[in-house]
Amino acid sequence: MSGLDSIPVRVEGGPSQDFRTDNLQPVLVQLQQAVEHLLAAGEETTIDLGAMPFSERDEADLRERLGVGEVAATLDAFGPTRIEETRFAGVWLIEHQDAEQRRLTLHLHVARVPEILCAPIDDIADGLAVLRAMNLNLPDS
Amino acid sequence: MSDEKTLAERLRERGISRRGFMKFCAATASMMALPPMMIPKIAAALEQAKRPSVIWLSFQECTGCTESLTRSHAPTIEGLIFDHISLDYHHTLQAAAGDAAEHAREAAMKDNWGKYLLVVDGSIPLKDDGVYSTIAGITNLAMLREVAEGAAAIVSVGTCAAFGGLPKADPNPTGAAAVSEIISGKPIVNVPGCPPIPTVITGVLAHFLTFGKLPELDNLNRPKVFYGESIHDRCYRRAFYERGQFAESFDDEGAREGWCLFKLGCKGPVTYNACATTRWNEGTSFPIASGHGCIGCSEPGFWDKGGFYDALSKGTHDSAEGIALAAGVGAAIGVAAAMGARVRQARADNKEDA
Lengths: 141, 354
Ligand code: SF4
Description:
The complex is a heterodimer of chains A (about 140) and B (about 350). Chain A is of the alpha+beta class and about 140 residues long. Chain A has helices at about 25-40, 55-65, 120-135; strands spanning about 45-50, 70-75, 80-85, 90-95, 105-110. Chain A has a 5-stranded antiparallel beta sheet with strand order 1-5-4-3-2. Chain A is flat and about 70 Å long. The termini of chain A are far apart. In chain B, about 35% of the residues lie in helices and about 10% in strands.
């Protein structure tokens, strides 16, 4: 048995996250500044949406305003990570989850491409070593 | 016992890739309430972090702090950090008992003299030479002094170790005292809360692991990253407070609408802790989100400051701040602007040519 469903309590009113905190507007202003900064100086910005009161309603409002862009990727490392470009090129929503799919962080990331998508140099080198070994062991044709 | 493997090596052994490690670092930064710009630095430091020896002493306490820490479901960031430390002595969690347990403590002290981290939960009785709490025939006072001597730093976990806690409540029959009232000349960090948020406990351990030192502290020796702002500063009900919309009872229309709990005794305005952002039970909720005001459990003497359901403006809380706050209810402080200023952000050089 799991979850709260088994507890015979009737919850009155709306869901507890059904409210706005007034923090959406400052986040959008900061996002605009971050995009300006990316264009002017080529510098990336990450805004940690877990660092402030930000309700589910705020997040839904944010997602609605930012829309859906052309790129979406899922990373499977230490639990899933969802990386989605918004309709604003260079503005990404990155949600890290743990192995039980609980949210670890939700970041608004402003960059041409999120670093975590790039193959790590160490891993490329490891892969190359494996490739070389594989080619050495190829049967003669 | 501590060994020579780094945290990065341990994670790799558990099949966590480089990308997974970077994700771990992002979550750790968030857990330590550090800005995202610190993620690469955390990664570089954790790559090298060795497994530290930790000795955990439990004195006059209820085991709530340990319960808090062990309540998280594996595998979590807290779990991975906790797995990485070498917990060489902890009454509740260790398998050894009696003499074997005490020998483990002595061996850990000897092997790691000057380097181990001492974690204490519970207050220490001073009255009548400390006879009110002993372990293996040793008073808490004597054990604390002995173990503190060889510690690199001390973490006082919970309001009892940090400020004396419930055992110190008037009339304090055992003469309960905080660690900082007994030990001097060592770095001491207070992690109060009854109990503290598990993420905050592990956040402090992670900071020690990552940077080899304790985080920046406030005037009560609490880490600023977690205790730098009041519950009220970060409360999602703050907008109702600003508008003067208060629940008057726990079942009225205002309570159902999620209005501010100030008049129902919320101590959020004078309480410094991370509950409003970090939350409890893997970020599920915290007391105010469940409809109950903050009781101020991370503040010194919260148990002797009047009723939990008395509004701060009633003046029972020994602070003029409460009265001033009541007078200022509804003032247009501009919470959104204040919150916006606190949005943590990071800029990293983008080496890529445009
Ligand atoms: S008084 Fe309590 S419920 Fe009201 S805004 Fe402040 S912290 Fe939140």
